[in-house]
Amino acid sequence: MANRPFSLLREGIYAAKAMAEHPERHTQTELAGMEDDLRILASCLWDYVGVFGKIMLYTKEDKNAWDEDHLFNFGESLAMLSDLAQGIEDIRFALRNPETVKAEREEKAHA
User: Fold this and answer.
1) What is the per-residue pLDDT across 43-69, written as a single tens digit (0 to 9) for each?
2) Domain ranges of the chain
3) Residue 97 burial by CB count (10 A; 0-12/13-18/19+): exposed, middle or buried?
4) By Cβ atoms counted within 10 A, which residue in 12, 47, 75, 107 is the most buried?
């Protein structure tokens, strides 16, 4: 069996990043469509992080569920999900504001 991803998420994020890096290669409709797809994705990720918060709240009395190893792994996973969601938000910003991002890159290059 071929090694296939569970979803097209990975390819979509890389495509969005490439679009954000070279917005001049795409129409405003394409940029807006990709930004909308990323908005939905980021919203789902933030919802997922929120669900874990609710699980922690509702199971706070279950000492077996929240031993130190579980808490560490749980916190590490939440941090990774949050980083992913923030990365998506950064790409969305670049898709919405290509001129601002271009100016920032040029400023960093000359610094």
Assistant:
1) 888 888 888 778 878 887 877 777 778
2) 36-101
3) middle
4) 12
